[in-house]
From TrEMBL:
This is Oxidoreductase. Pfam families: FMN_red. GO terms for molecular function: FMN binding; oxidoreductase activity. It is an enzyme of class 1 (oxidoreductase). Keywords: Oxidoreductase. InterPro entries: Flavoprotein-like_sf (IPR029039), FMN_Rdtase-like_dom (IPR005025), NAD(P)H-dep_reductase (IPR050712). Its EC number is 1.-.-.-. One of its GO terms (cellular component) is cytosol. Residues 3-147 form the NADPH-dependent FMN reductase-like domain. The lineage of its organism: Bacteria, Bacillati, Bacillota, Bacilli, Lactobacillales. It comes from the Bacteria. The keyword Zinc does not apply. It comes from Leuconostoc citreum (strain KM20).
Length: 182
């Protein structure tokens, strides 16, 4: 059974990113174990904590280490990823030499209320994943623009074509991930 971690870059209630993530997860195999990682409560990464990390860092790193693969869904904040997402990447990749993201396959999706679809955040996140040594699925590219028109008031994707597209991407990611899981 594959363990999929889901990291949603938005900490907002009823976020569109969470809705996109749910639609992707719907395409994973029935037996998949899915864990949504809470990044909202992580204190800002500080190298001074490397010698004696806060318990929340230790727990987060253990949760990341326990996953086989990751689905990342990010909004675009000022043409980049959210501070919460960047912080989560930093916390679990430190102390230096103890990167628990390393080698875990990843899927990246971005969304935006505009037509630009979070494309810049998407590519910035991909660059971080390259550095973290995470093999990342290349196709299909998941840029979801004008997401407010595709979701309901709770942020869940309600457009049938978009739901099917995202579920299919989740299914493809499950196959992709198996090539890297030891």
């Amino acid at each position: 059974m594959t363990k999929f971690g889901v990291v949603v870059g938005s900490t907002r209630k009823n976020s569109y990113s969470h809705g996109v993530a749910e639609a992707i997860v719907a395409g994973l195999p029935e037996e998949a174990e899915v864990t949504f990682l809470n990044i909202a409560e992580l204190p800002l990464y500080n190298q001074d904590f490397d010698e004696e990390s806060p318990e929340v860092y230790t727990q987060f790193r253990a949760t990341v280490a326990a996953q086989d693969a990751f689905i990342f869904v990010t909004p675009e904040h000022n043409r980049s990823i959210s501070a919460a997402l960047k912080n989560a990447l930093d916390v679990a990749s430190r102390p230096w030499g103890q990167n628990v993201w390393q080698g875990k396959p990843a899927l990246v999706a971005s969304q935006s209320i505009s037509g630009i679809s979070g494309v810049l955040a998407h590519h910035i996140l991909r660059q971080s994943l390259v550095f973290l040594d995470m093999p990342t699925m290349q196709q299909p590219e998941l840029y979801i623009g004008n997401v407010a028109n595709l979701a309901d008031e709770t942020g869940q994707i309600s457009n049938a074509d978009t739901k099917a597209f995202l579920a299919n991407a989740g299914n493809q990611f499950a196959d992709f991930a198996q090539r890297f899981i030891k």
